[in-house]
Amino acid sequence: MIAHEIPDIRLRVDTDRFGPVLFEIGVDPERLRLTMQRVEDAHARFVHSPLAQVANKLEREVIASSIYGTNTIEGGILTEDETRAAMDLDPAQVQEIEQRRVLNIKAAYGRARQAALDPAWALSIDFITTIHGLITHDLPHPDNRPGLIRNNPKGRITHVGSPQHGGRYKPPQYERDIWRLLEGLLAWHQQLAEAGVHPLVRAPLVHYYYELIHPFWDGNGRVGRVIEATLLQAAGYEYAPFALTRYYLDNIDAYFTLFNSCRKAAEKHQPHPNTAFVLFHQEGMRLTINALHDRVNRLVSILLFQSRTRELLDSKAINARQYTIVSQLLTQGRPAPLGELRHTPWYASLYLKLNDKTRSRDLKKLRELELLVLDQEDQLWPGCVQVRNPRAL
């Protein structure tokens, strides 16, 4: 359903202690129309790009980046490289809590992606508690209760948010209220789906209201982002739903602030109170899809470059030393300062019994064939990279 046809579907849920909660779409269709069209256009270009050639590499990159993003939002301290390394650990090898957090999110992603591929899947409380259980498995949080809904004892108050991001909010504290609100949210979402409300509207709204309910003691942010991503992937969006967490991380202040500003707008009965959050999400989808498209193009160009380099080796247009140099630069993923390159063990071993003239001749030939590019700072780049300031031969 396109933006100007969004129906006004609302559901009021009465609770015992928290008071009434109104689930509403609350968006201005005209303000969404252009952004939604841009997302759809970006997605159409992306799915028609040569994804099949690089799907495995792209998927691994997306998962690593997404785990890093969602974990860092919640206080994780691993770098992206450390996150990538932790993903490959056997659970029995885990020695640090940060590594456990990574493997937990990876397991939750696996379950979510499996669910999204099932045409019969529908968002349920069982799915939500399962994802929470996977995300919080074996983590030493004082209130860690994987898969169990929060029930605050008397005198124990849960607050969400901070003064720096629009204020603090007191979500429902009573377990029965939380259950009612989750059931109401799922019933309301089902009404939206049956009415054909676009997933670019439905998914962020479920994410938004889920976070306001805040049903668990810990892990709510990670679970909410997985729910949103699963809904989007089930609707046919590839890679971007999980990659979106990096956009949230890069715009973390706006992300946190919007939960409060939209909530306050609804409390004041302002028109279309949820528009800003949905627009923020859709802009993130557009930027994420475009970035993925660019990455696919770069990966494909690297594959073509590798193929050309191999053909030149097979035809003896370049020698094994030259092939090794190009391959090593591709593998390290960054330019090599010429002075530094000459002192690396692998490079020095290539010319152990050869003179400087041979070394210079090899590099000159690689530059002539445009397999290597030397820039103005004396850094060597693989020829598949566009260098802004190449040095002439």
From TrEMBL:
PROSITE patterns: FIDO. Residues 150-169 are annotated as: Disordered. InterPro entries: Fido, Fido-like_dom_sf, Fido_containing. Pfam families: Fic. SUPFAM superfamilies: Fic-like. Residues 123-283 form the Fido domain. PANTHER family: FIDO DOMAIN-CONTAINING PROTEIN (PTHR13504:SF38), FIDO DOMAIN-CONTAINING PROTEIN DDB_G0283145 (PTHR13504). This is Fic family protein. It comes from Aromatoleum toluolicum.
